[in-house]
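USER: My hope is that you can spare some time for a protein that puzzles me. I am handing you a single protein, as its sequence and its fold in token form. Walk me, if you will, through where the backbone shape changes along the chain. The protein I mean follows directly.
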Amino acid sequence: MKPRHSLTALAVFAAFSTAMPGIGVAATDEQKSVAFAAIDRNASEIALVGDTLYFYAEPGMQEFESAKFLKESLTDMGFKVETGRAGMPTAVWATYGSGKPHVVIVTEIDALPEGSQTPGSMPRKPLVAGAPGHMEGHNTHGGVALGALQAVKAVMDKYKLPGKVSVSFGPAEEQLASRPFLVRSGQFADADAAILIHIGDRLSTGYGLQNYAAISATFSFKGKTAHGAVNPWDGKDAVDAVVLMDTGYNALREHMRPTQRAHRTITAGGIQPNIIPDYGQSWWFVRDANAPWAKENFDKLVNVAKGAALMTGTTMEMEVVASAWPQLGNKVLSEAISRNIDVVGMPKWSADEDKFAREFQRSLGLPTIGLATERVTGNRPQSFASNDNGDVTWVVPTGTLSFPSAVPGVGAHNWQAGVTPTLSLSHKGQVAGAKVLAGSILDILTEPKVLASARAEFDTELKKSPYFSLLPPEAQPKTDMNKEVMEKLRPEMSKFYLKKKANFK
């Protein structure tokens, strides 16, 4: 791609910007060249960060080794690092610089239960049987974030740019369990803009509502045990209440908007058939296209649960575990990110990388199209999935960025997605993502018009749908989530830890 300025004009522009720091011009080609050179120089460290997190493979709220590694790496890079925001020990927040504007990278590093997989193995081959694993590739987020942060810091130092840049690694995204609490605690009150990053199969950005709102809650029923054959009339069946709750909500679906989604798992369903169970529990996710509708659906579910308890003579306790607003992608910031996607372009895949992707796709019965070469930007259809960083987008103008570290067609939340996050194709995608992210942050830091326009758009959206927390006031993060499984499996998993130190230059 040709440079946007002639060499003479670029030299004059760069000299003027250096002589008068903070004048409010967009980041120059020279400044971005410095950032991109830093990312290329640290490509091996970016890969090391992502690979290290992959082998830690820690599920939500148990990301202790991952958080420790990130804290040490960011501290060595010159960032001020905190852990423990909103009462969550594995929440990591790091900042460099001071004053305004303040740009925050928002992402996560958690793995998924039972996703352990040997990298590069197309057949199912867990590293540790039954252990968690990165079958959505969240491990790659750490490398992209740290690579971009180091590059932005280098430019801020060289050109004396005002402002600050931060990163928020939220725990337990897979359980929708941290960002609403971080927002409620005021973590993002000082932010002027944010960028959400996530693994994908190509460079992409979008705006508008990107996904669904969701509320996660457990419903526990308590009854009275009895012998199922001798005196069942003395029992109060808590599992009957769970079943009736299912039936009641299913009957409601006809009378709900077609956008609604609701699904559950039964987490306590009795001991054996001839014992009337005195305890039953189900865990529900309730979703819809926006937060008010999701809240309306959830309130109906609570009433159904109360009715199930009344019919069975049991008592019911409901506890909200987590919640999420849909992501609201800011168009102005998306356009800024898109311009940087145009500059960086998709990675140049090797013949071997593309061959591996095609063989992998073929082995899974997917269309054999190889690795992606085209980017995607613009307004995309709203997806039905949810993640907990949506709340951030309703308290600060936010852009979204996906980077190409996954094979097209290979779905997340399946062990197959754990095959590639440490391969060279993933590493190349992380480098490309770090460059787009760094360039976008620099544009936001140096161009007041971008921030002003993004804020104006954001304020207009909030007038249409004012933000409110879906969390009840008494809700607290479940920091013991996944604790038991990690206490059991960590000793065996630790045999695969890389135990290397990242040294960004």
Summary: Confidence is low (pLDDT under 50) at residues 1-25. The CA atoms of residues 217 and 321 lie 5 Å apart. The two ends are 27 Å apart (CA to CA).
